[in-house]
């Protein structure tokens, strides 16, 4: 059996490797913070108020079926994109069933306040400056579309899996309780699968929204522990001095 002194631990890494791994972990940490901010600004505004709640999750994936997609967007995450009086006109148009006879009044408002983002070819937002697409937005809000869920699912599964592969590999060299280390390295992958699966389940049953919240907190906590412990053991004297004393 390999002696602990013979194992490659974070405190024993060369300066070059510690700088390399620390740079990666710091960037990943900032990426998680940016991701959290982005979630607050999108899903967190689904009910029109800043702050991520169970209702926001339900509205994002299952939809708010008491109103149309256009009305819910203008009362929610798009609430601040246009003045209240403009939102009121667009919502009233939606309540009327989006009559084409009023398009000459509605189109200039959309072009002035919405087209900057919605007409961007690189954006996934619907091109609501077009009448047929705008009319489709007055249908009942059924949350995320199947095409959106499919696209976002494969991006998350591929991208985040690689992040946790490298974070887990670095953390595997930490001096830590073996059982807890196995749990911390493995749990983010399980939480990621649960998270993406719960998007699809919530699309059809809003009760699964709680699973999205649990999985999100789950791999956020695991990531925080692994990043913090790894950075600490690469730079704090408590671990790096061992290398000098052993030499």
Question: What does this 3D model show about the protein?
Answer:
The protein is mainly alpha-helical and 247 residues long. The protein folds into 2 domains: 4-43 and 144-246, no CATH class; 64-136, no CATH class. Helix content is 67%, strand content 0%. It has 11 helices and no strands. α1 (15-41) runs antiparallel to α10 (209-235), α2 (54-61) packs across α10 and α3 (69-75) runs antiparallel to α4. It starts with 14 loop residues before the first helix and ends with a helix. The mean pLDDT is 87.
Question: How would you summarize the topology of this molecule?
Answer:
Blueprint: H1 15-41, H2 54-61, H3 69-75, H4 84-95, H5 103-113, H6 115-118, H7 131-136, H8 146-171, H9 178-204, H10 209-235, H11 237-246
Gist of the model:
This protein has helices at residues 15-41, 54-61, 69-75, 84-95, 103-113, 115-118, 131-136, 146-171, 178-204, 209-235, 237-246.
Number of beta strands: 0
Report Rg: 24 Å
Shape: elongated
Number of separate helices? 11
Task: Give the SSE order as H and E letters.
Answer: HHHHHHHHHHH
The amount of beta strand, in percent, is: under 5%
| Total number of domains | 2
Low-confidence stretches: none
End-to-end separation in angstroms reads 21 Å
Average pLDDT, rounded to a whole number, is 87
Helix content class: 55-70%
Helix and strand content put the structural class at mainly alpha
Largest sheet: number of strands, sense, barrel closure: none
Write out key terms for the chains shown.
single chain, 247 residues, 2 domains, 67% helix, 0% strand
